């Protein structure tokens, strides 16, 4: 059964009164902002960006060397961007899923899988060590087949994944609907390990508090505006805030800005911002949950290029997002609200779970994801090794940013580690072409992926991109 391409008027009405703010950030537990940077200062390590990537970098740097002077600057509030707007899916995968990792680095997939599992275990241990309450819950994943062509090759895919230690199991329609009662489900893939759910904003705030407890200096409302003239052996970063301009002379700099305009211009060739949209329902009644099932609380998605992701929350809501992936040339708050995408999500939720036809929506929001041509993070250095970066997490950065932070610290400290020896870390994705070719190519790719979801066939354009190692996904 194909998903509707256009929402009914009732779906527009259903989302009209939802609060236009991220559910996770709409929380009285949100900490008060920290003051901006004032005047010039110095640091052993400057971290630019206060999302997951930057917070993990600062925390791990301080844990490794308590004497290191670590400063983090954030242009807005801690966790206000992608880190506070995602679905809270915390995956072991550092390659944006087994399929993507195996397609790109088959010779080292076992190493990458192990590093990812170790990273998730380390993340969970950190939460326990600092008492971070973010509703971390290992739940497993269920991916629903909703069109007949999704079933093609499913058994072979599962067998390949199992041969590399993944606990992937193919389910038929009856087995899938026993887990969630959706008339669209005609089969599925289930894994029970390697994934968790979190409250992403509370994770970010918990990491903030952990950093502060170790002596990391954090300044919010402080935007890094560019590189200044360096007079010594380090790097100078100029900043702007309501308090006025300031600067940091740092021995090392870690750039963790992801979808936002990079301080290193060359990175703009590798990352494009894609806007993703999310709905949160009102809490379901006990009767509604009984009609849905979903007692296992798995993280859910449906197969396809344009896919949805959905999960349960602590207070009995359903988060439903994805499908639309809207490329924008610039990151701007004006793209956060797109009523067409919200109405389409409401329409699709009613297709997946028609028993929730009358459910209301409490929140609607959007935000930018940084994506690259290989769909998973890439890494590198600049300024004679004094600056490191990690970017391109493509929506699966809740867990993978911790790994990326460790890579940046390895690179800045000149350490030869198992992480840095992987081809994933040592190689770069193919760059995107300049505008207007970039925008035209992405638009053509998006239309082609939508057609492939309807027909099950990849056209000449998509097959060409496959051969080049390029693509576009939601």
Which helices and strands occur, and which strands form pairs?
Elements: H1 9-15, E1 39-48, H2 52-64, E2 70-73, H3 82-85, E3 89-91, H4 98-104, H5 109-130, E4 137-138, E5 141-145, H6 154-163, E6 169-172, H7 173-179, E7 187-191, E8 195-197, H8 200-213, E9 217-219, E10 223-227, E11 235-240, E12 246-255, E13 272-281, H9 286-292, E14 299-302, E15 308-312, E16 318-327, H10 339-352, E17 361-371, E18 378-382, E19 387-391, H11 397-412, H12 418-421, H13 423-426, H14 437-455, H15 460-468
Parallel strand pairs: 1-2, 1-12, 2-9, 5-14, 12-19
Antiparallel strand pairs: 3-8, 4-8, 5-7, 6-7, 10-11, 11-12, 13-16, 13-17, 14-15, 15-16, 18-19
Helix pairs in contact: 1-10, 2-8, 2-11, 5-11
User: What's the CATH class of the largest domain, please?
Assistant: Alpha Beta
Poorly predicted runs: none
Tally of structural domains: 3
Based on secondary structure, the structural category is alpha+beta
Distance between the termini: 20 Å
CATH architecture designation of the largest domain: 3-Layer(bba) Sandwich
Q: What share of the residues lie within helices?
A: 25-40%
CATH superfamily of the largest domain: FAD/NAD(P)-binding domain
- What's the mean pLDDT score? 95
Number of separate helices: 15
- In CATH, the topology of the largest domain is named FAD/NAD(P)-binding domain
Radius of gyration, rounded?
Answer: 22 Å
Question: Strand tally, please?
Answer: 19
Strand composition percent: 15-25%
Question: Rough shape?
Answer: globular
Instruction: Characterize the biggest β-sheet.
Output: 8 strands, mixed
């Amino acid at each position: 059964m194909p998903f509707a391409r256009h929402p009914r008027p009732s779906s527009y009405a259903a989302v009209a009164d939802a609060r236009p703010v991220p559910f996770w950030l709409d929380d009285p537990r949100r900490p008060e902002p920290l003051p901006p940077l004032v005047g010039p200062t110095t640091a052993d390590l400057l971290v630019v960006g206060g999302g997951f990537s930057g917070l993990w970098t600062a925390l791990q740097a301080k844990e490794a060397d308590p004497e290191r002077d670590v400063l983090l600057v954030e242009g807005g509030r801690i966790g206000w961007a992608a880190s506070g707007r995602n679905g809270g899916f915390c995956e072991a995968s550092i390659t944006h899923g087994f399929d993507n990792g195996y397609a790109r680095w088959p010779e080292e997939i076992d190493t990458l899988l192990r590093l990812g599992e170790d990273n998730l275990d380390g993340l969970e241990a950190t939460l326990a060590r600092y008492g971070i309450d973010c509703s971390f819950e290992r739940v497993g994943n269920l991916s629903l087949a909703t069109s007949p062509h999704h079933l093609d090759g499913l058994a072979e895919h599962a067998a390949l994944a199992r041969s590399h230690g993944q606990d992937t199991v193919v389910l038929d329609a009856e087995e899938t609907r026993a887990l969630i009662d959706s008339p669209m489900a005609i089969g599925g893939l289930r894994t029970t390990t390697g994934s968790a759910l979190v409250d992403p904003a509370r994770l970010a705030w918990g990491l903030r508090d952990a950093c502060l407890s170790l002596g990391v200096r954090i300044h919010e409302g402080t935007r890094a505006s560019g590189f200044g003239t360096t007079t010594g052996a380090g790097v100078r970063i100029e900043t702007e805030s309501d308090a006025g301009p300031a600067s940091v002379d740092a021995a090392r700099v870690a750039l963790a800005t992801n979808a936002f305009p990079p301080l290193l211009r060359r990175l703009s060739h590798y990352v494009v911002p894609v806007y993703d949209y999310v709905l949160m329902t009102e809490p379901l009644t006990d009767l509604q949950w009984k009609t849905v099932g979903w007692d296992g609380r798995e993280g859910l998605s449906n197969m396809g290029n344009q896919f949805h992701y959905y999960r349960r929350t602590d207070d009995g809501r359903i988060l439903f997002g994805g499908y639309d992936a809207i490329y924008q040339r610039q990151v701007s708050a004006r793209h956060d609200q797109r009523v067409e995408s919200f109405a389409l999500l409401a329409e699709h939720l009613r297709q997946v779970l028609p028993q929730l036809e009358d459910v209301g929506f409490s929140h609607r929001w959007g935000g930018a994801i940084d994506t690259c041509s290989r769909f998973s993070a890439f890494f590198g250095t600049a300024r004679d090794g004094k600056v490191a970066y990690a970017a391109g997490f493509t929506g699966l950065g809740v867990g993978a940013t911790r790994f990326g932070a460790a890579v940046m610290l390895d690179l800045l400290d000149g350490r030869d580690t198992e992480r840095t020896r992987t081809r994933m870390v040592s190689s770069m994705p193919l760059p995107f072409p300049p505008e207007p070719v970039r925008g035209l190519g992405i638009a053509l790719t998006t239309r082609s992926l939508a057609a492939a979801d309807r027909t099950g066939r990849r056209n000449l354009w998509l097959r060409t991109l496959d051969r080049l190692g390029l693509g576009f996904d939601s």
